[in-house]
Each structure stands twice: as structure tokens, then as C-alpha cells.
Amino acid sequence: MKVIVFTVLTSFTFASEGLPKRVTESQLPIGKGLASRFVADHGIQKASSVIFADNFESGSLGERWDEKAKPLTLVASGGGVFGNQCLRVTATLGQDHGGGLTKWFQSSETVFVRFYTRFDQGSDYIHHFVTLRANQALRGKEKWSGFGGAGVLPRGDERFSTALEPWGDWGRIQAPGHWNFYSYWHEMKPSGDQRFWGNQFLPKGQDSIKKGQWICAELMLKHNTPGQRNGEQAFWIGGELLGHWNNISWRTSPSLWANALTLESYVTDRWTKNPVNIVDFDNVVIASEYIGPAGKP
Known about the structure:
CATH class: Mainly Beta
Largest sheet: 9 strands, antiparallel
Number of domains: 1
Number of helices: 0
CATH architecture: Sandwich
Structural class: mainly beta
Distance between the termini: 44 Å
CATH topology: Jelly Rolls
Radius of gyration: 18 Å
Order of helices and strands: EEEEEEEEEEEEEEEEE
């Protein structure tokens, strides 16, 4: 039985010493990156900095992943961003909340995750999306959905997570919304109810996410040195850097690493009203360097 967690977003202007700060003159790369050296990602898995890659073109559904949460399908007949297949997640209100895949991997000091996604023209607001997490306590248990301990302040030696997901501002932004980070860590701030829901990192000036077309999305997390606030996170859309934040203490223990990626589309009927919500994913890459959009075929 799946437990539904109603999430309250907590948004802050991070400015004080112990809180993340927006980097206004970022030195992070933009545009072309590792993937530009590979036509449509072909052979990218052989690059020394690549930790994991899947373009869903071969093998059974989720064969390279560690966990599956249905309903999932492989869309064929030219459905992929470059190839013949992609992963499709269909969420049907009254029947399920969506689904996804989880991959556990050997982490690095800085982790980059790039994926392509496409929102169906009928897609509505989405509750949770693509999540990078560290949670040693969840190994061996069901860990694909939610964040583990939603509403509870994480311990610095226990867990942290950050999700790149659309945010609809309670219906004020056209669905599916604007891109933002939704993050849990031991120094996060409580919401108005004094519980600890994900803190929001939402760059201003965005256009609403376009439906019916493939979007190249990438996120980065740099681990902090325990005892220091030198952690970072950032995300790119189409190779454009939309947000970069530093001054983050993700962890207090050197044994806690971001080592699980969940590719999911999870909806609830709290603000999702369309009965059927379809999201496609393709060309997922995890690496220790900036990946960028795939080289054009």
C-alpha cells in the first residue's frame, strides 16, 4: 500500500550565513559538455567520467535499474528523443500515482545527472519528479517513492535529497509549471506548520515548461566537506544554467553520499485534475562532469 504524502513547499530567499546562497556570477559550464562528443549519446557509457547511462533502446524495461514502480511502458516506433524507444510513465487518478525507476550507483564528489523528458499535451501538475538522494537507511527496502521521512528534519549523517521538478505555485503557473529544486538536508528551514517539507530553489523569470517536446534537463550536486558549508547544487535546461547555489552543508558524515537516482512522475489529486498524465523519459546519464545536451545526429 502506497502512503500519500501531501507536501507543503517552503520557499526562501537564502541570504543568512547558514543558508544556501544564489551564485550570481557562476563559473559552471554552459552549452556543450561531455555529451557533445558523442552523436546522440552513442558510446557515451564508455567515457571514463560516466557512472551510468541508459537510452532505453535495448533490453527489457528497467533492466539496468535496481527498482521499478509501475505503471511503466517502453514507447517504440520512433518514440525516443534520438532512437526508437523511450520510457513512458502514465499516472491515472483513481488508479495509481504514477511510477518510476531507481538506480543505485557509486557516487563521486560532484554528481551530474542529465535526462531528456517530454510532457504530454494533457499533462497536469506533478507532485514529485526526478530525485537524487542519499539515504543509507533505505537500502534493501522500497525506496522509489517519496523522500523517506517527509516532514521530518533529516540528520546530517542520515539522509539528504534534491529533486528537479516542475512547480505550479498552487495552480498560478500554467501546468506543468516552472523548474525548481525541492531539497531536504539537515540545515533546511521549517515551513509555517513547523514541519520540514522540502525547501524550494526557484529561479525567477522562467517561461512555463512547454508540453509535447523533448527537453534536456541536467542537475548537479557537489558534496560538502563534513563540518563545512562548501556544498553546491545547480541545474540546466537545454544547456542553459538556470540556477546555481552554494554555501550548503548536505551532510555531517563522510560516509553519506548521493547514491540513488529516481526517475519518476508522481501525482496526487490535491492539485492534479487531469485524469491521465503522461511523461516520457530518455537518454539518462549520470557522470562526474558536466554532460550537456547530446551531440546532434
